[in-house]
Design goal:
The chain is α/β, with parallel strands linked by helices and 357 residues long. 30% of the residues lie in helices and 16% in strands. The chain has a domain of 238 residues: TIM Barrel (Alpha-Beta Barrel).
């Protein structure tokens, strides 16, 4: 496991190990979307990560997809997140904020009746969204006009400014899992014409413009990007994910990011393929992999040069001291899915550490 405990430079960040904490929606911010002391405790418990990537956070108001997820668009939210960044830094950690727009995954019952927006008027199917009125079907989104997209980009830029004010070490742009930027990127959800539809170059345009705007705030060496070119979550598909991976990996070299964070597979196993190999072959920066890695597989992948670091999700959720457990060869706590999104500390801040156990 020694390869997981070698330092790694991520742009302007020095990570002491290669065991990252993946962004995990936990819905502990309440209906007011306000980060709080319980969240600060949760993230500080996990400060041993090489890098913590905090959960999907609303870049702009009125785009809730999870009901109780946090935002970063108000002064109160900036102050709330400062509790977390102060706690993580006091514990010796590093933390990026994942900034996000839910796109067509949003719902009118979560956003004052507003219809969600997307690249095309195509609804998510085969799933339902949690709302104050119980689970509800997703609705058909409104297709964004080209002249509305500068406002989306400005919203991400403001979120980046707010994340800096809240004391984060950088930001990760959420371009994965069927949310707005991913919806534009993959042609199963983007069937528009014009400068933001059709070719790969056009479909990637909004994501690249968001990266440029966010990098103008932070410097690109403190900006990451997450993508999930195979994941079918939120009714997502692309006709050529390998071609998309190959093109995007090469194009992102121009962005000089701190890292590229790639989800390697599909939650539901519907879409198969290897996106990691073409991305590694074409991307010259730091590559972080995610999705179903065991510590042993992660160590082997880093040792073989296939990736530079691995982000762990549910393993970090259930093991606040995951790096210490991996280093010691200790057994891991099992996560409790029934409490992933519950409102209190159970299944959140009460998982035992090795010392407590």
């Amino acid at each position: 496991m020694t390869t997981l405990f070698t330092p790694l430079t991520l742009g302007a960040i020095a990570a002491p190990n290669r065991i990252f904490m993946a962004p995990l929606t936990r819905c502990r911010a309440g209906a007011e979307h306000l980060p709080n002391a319980m969240m600060a405790e949760y993230y500080a418990q996990r400060a041993g990560a090489g890098l913590i990537i905090a959960e999907a956070t609303m870049a702009m108001e009125g785009n809730s997809a999870f009901w109780r997820e946090p935002g970063i668009h108000s002064a109160a939210q900036v102050a709330g997140w400062k509790l977390t960044t102060d706690a993580v830094h006091a514990a010796g950690g590093r933390i990026f904020l994942q900034i996000w727009h839910g796109g067509r995954a949003c719902h009118p019952l979560l956003n004052g009746g507003a219809q969600p927006v997307a690249p095309s008027a195509i609804a998510i199917t085969g799933d339902e969204v949690n709302t104050p009125q119980g689970k509800q079907p997703y609705v058909v989104p409104r297709e964004l006009r080209d002249d509305e997209l500068p406002g989306i980009i400005a919203g991400f830029r403001k979120a980046a400014e707010n994340a800096k004010a809240a004391g984060f070490d950088g930001v990760e742009v959420h371009g994965a899992n069927g949310y707005l930027l991913d919806e534009f990127l993959r042609n199963g959800a983007n069937q528009r014409s014009g400068p933001y539809g059709g070719s790969i170059e056009n479909r990637a345009r909004l994501m690249l413009e968001v990266i440029e705007a966010v990098s103008a705030v932070w410097g690109s060496e403190r900006v990451g990007l997450r993508i999930s070119l195979l994941n079918s979550y939120n009714s997502m598909i692309d006709s050529d994910p390998i071609g998309l991976a190959t093109w995007l990996a090469g194009r992102l070299n121009d962005c000089k990011l701190a890292y590229l964070h790639v989800m390697r597979g599909d939650f539901f196993g519907q879409q198969k393929g290897d996106v990691m190999t073409p991305i590694r072959a074409n991307y010259q920066g730091v590559l972080v992999a995610n999705m179903g890695y065991t510590p042993a597989e992660a160590a082997d992948a880093v040792a073989a040069g296939k990736v530079d670091a691995v982000a762990f999700g549910t393993s970090f959720l259930a093991n606040p001291d995951l790096p210490a457990r991996i280093e010691a060869g200790a057994a891991l706590n099992k996560p409790d899915p029934a409490k992933f999104y519950s409102p209190g500390p159970e299944g959140y801040t009460d998982y035992p550490t090795l010392i407590a156990a």
